[in-house]
């Protein structure tokens, strides 16, 4: 997704929600999320004819197919019932793999429905492939050296210090920082209200005060973690003096 599109979409959501947003914290595949909400929309039309009967036993039934469990979890998430919310919650304790990810989406969806009813106000649910924490979204960020094919120890020290300080000053948190050949990769939490470029540009600028070794361009996504091949492909296509961001 283009950087401007990420920021525009977030600003639109915040404006509509009046600041009342709920962020999915788990890292769940985006395709799985899309499938979940497609089924949610279909099942909403059938909710009046849906009756809960020993739902937890149905979910734990080994004879029930994966697809049948997915539909049942969606139906439970649509009822706006505390009892059904607890059923999903209990199921998550034992679930594994994709069905657990699906159940987490169902629990979040059920919680939003319950809170909207209890508080009598709509809430906006924000979910990305990399999830988030509290009022922050998680991003995968990549920077690149201008000339060398790998970072020197002094450059690493500068980046470690300057990036940590820059992110901290913007109420953001670097969860991990790695060096792969000529690339620096970060996983970071940034407040949803904070322009992403504001944080990253400051970090790069501060590091470049000690040798001007990083290009101004960078890659940022909240969809998934990228491998080296994806990263190399991105930078190969870019003009390094460009100010546009992904």
Tell me what you see in this structure:
The protein is built from 9 helices and 7 strands; from the N terminus they run αβαααααβββαββαβα. α4 runs parallel beside α6 and α7 runs antiparallel to α8. With 246 residues, the chain is an alpha+beta fold. 50% of the residues lie in helices and 15% in strands. The strands form 2 sheets. Strands 3, 4, 5, 6 and 7 form a 5-stranded antiparallel beta sheet that branches. The chain has helices at 3-17, 30-44, 55-60, 66-78, 82-92, 97-119, 153-169, 196-208, 228-237; strands at 21-23, 124-126, 132-133, 136-144, 173-180, 183-191, 219-221. It is elongated, with a radius of gyration of 21 Å.
Q: Secondary-structure element sequence? A: HEHHHHHEEEHEEHEH
- Using the CA coordinates, give the radius of gyration: 21 Å
Put simply, the count of helices is: 9
Q: What does the overall shape look like?
A: elongated
Category from helices, strands and their pairing: alpha+beta
Identify low-pLDDT runs: 240-246
Please state the second-level CATH architecture of the largest domain: 2-Layer Sandwich
């Amino acid at each position: 997704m283009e950087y401007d599109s990420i920021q525009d979409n977030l600003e639109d959501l915040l404006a509509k929600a009046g600041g009342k947003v709920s962020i999915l914290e788990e890292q769940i595949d985006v395709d799985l999320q899309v499938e979940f909400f497609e089924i949610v929309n279909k099942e909403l039309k059938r909710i009046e004819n849906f009756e809960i009967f020993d739902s937890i036993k149905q979910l734990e039934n080994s004879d029930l197919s994966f697809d049948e469990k997915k539909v049942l979890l969606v139906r439970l998430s649509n009822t706006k019932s505390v009892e059904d919310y607890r059923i999903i919650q209990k199921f998550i304790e034992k679930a594994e793999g994709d069905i657990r990810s699906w159940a987490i989406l169902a629990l979040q969806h059920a919680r939003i429905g319950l809170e909207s009813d209890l508080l009598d106000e709509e809430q906006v649910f924000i979910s990305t492939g990399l999830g988030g924490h509290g009022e922050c979204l998680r991003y995968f960020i990549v920077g690149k050296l201008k000339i060398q094919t790998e970072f020197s120890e002094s450059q690493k020290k500068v980046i470690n210090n300057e990036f940590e300080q820059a992110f901290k000053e913007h109420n953001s948190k670097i969860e991990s920082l790695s060096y792969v050949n000529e690339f620096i990769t970060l996983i970071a939490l940034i407040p949803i209200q904070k322009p992403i470029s504001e944080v990253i540009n400051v970090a790069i600028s501060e590091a470049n005060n000690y040798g001007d070794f990083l290009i101004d361009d960078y890659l940022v996504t909240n969809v998934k973690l990228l491998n080296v091949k994806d990263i190399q492909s991105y930078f190969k296509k870019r003009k390094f003096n460009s100010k546009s961001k992904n």
